[in-house]
Design goal:
There is one protein chain. Helices cover 27% and strands 29% of the residues. With 260 residues, it is α/β, with parallel strands linked by helices.
């Protein structure tokens, strides 16, 4: 099952670093946050990734191009006037990574629409390239298969608000709207499971996924929420980056399950 990660935005609230690199490859604990998200999915056995790149997409491609080399023991042999390279031990994860240039100004829904040809008619995971979570991916997938709707999103309780959800008694999302400062309700944390019918809800590059597609799914009763009571944290600014670094430095990062 493929994992789609949105990694194309500007990161305008992270000007300290995002002027020079896309936010998903800003490092925490010496590795890009994108790497951390991929390791989360790998922990549950999902190793096939599609990265929806945009802003400075060449830097994401270069990072993956260099990753194998930098994590291998290599002999460079120039003795006969050529450059022969022999790989000895390599320490890379068993990933397949497709990095797609989905455009610099493309909205979130448009980015998803652009990778339709790589998905086909199968369900897929989708999340954002700027947040980490300790949600049980296998239980999330089981929940999605059980209810039979088009879309499932992971909902968490946070003081800092993203997209606000009105959730009914059966976990169906009744409505989806943008945040209000004083809201104290579940929010959309990403970590979604989507059936291929989702592409019918996206018009073009200008479609914001969190608006019309999710709002329409909610109206039609096709959007469900998986309630997560554990850890979730986005990385929108330096303060949040420092917070994630503190978890890592103290060896208490809840999302780093692969070391346990």
């Amino acid at each position: 099952m493929k994992v789609v990660i949105l990694a194309g935005g500007y990161g305008t609230r992270f000007a300290e670093e995002s002027e020079n690199k896309p936010k998903p490859i800003i490092e925490i604990g010496g590795r890009p946050i994108l790497w951390h998200i991929m390791k989360e999915y790998m922990y549950y056995g999902f190793n096939d990734f599609i990265i929806c790149a945009g802003y400075k997409q060449n830097m994401i491609k270069k990072w993956f191009a260099d990753y194998f080399l930098y994590n291998s023991d290599v002999t460079f042999d120039y003795r006969d006037g050529t450059n022969k390279m022999r790989i000895h031990d390599q320490h890379c994860e068993p990933w397949q990574v497709t990095v797609v240039d989905t455009g610099v100004g493309t909205m979130t829904g448009g980015r998803i629409k652009r990778i339709q040809k790589y998905i086909g008619d199968k369900p897929f995971f989708m999340t954002y390239g700027d947040g980490v979570c300790d949600v049980d991916i296998n239980k999330l997938l089981e929940f999605h298969k059980r209810h039979g709707k088009i879309a499932t999103l992971t909902a968490v309780m946070q003081e800092q608000q993203k997209g606000v959800l009105n959730i009914g008694g059966n976990n169906a999302v009744k409505s989806f709207r943008e945040k209000n400062v004083n809201d104290g309700v579940p929010i959309n944390a990403g970590y979604m499971v989507l059936n291929s019918e989702i592409f019918n809800y996206i018009d073009n590059d200008d479609t914001v996924f969190e608006r019309e597609p999710l709002e329409r799914l909610a109206r039609e009763g096709e959007l469900m929420s998986y309630i997560h009571k554990g850890f979730w944290q986005c990385m929108d600014n330096k303060r949040e980056k420092d917070l994630l670094e503190e978890y890592i430095n103290a060896s208490t990062a809840p999302w780093i399950k692969w070391k346990r």
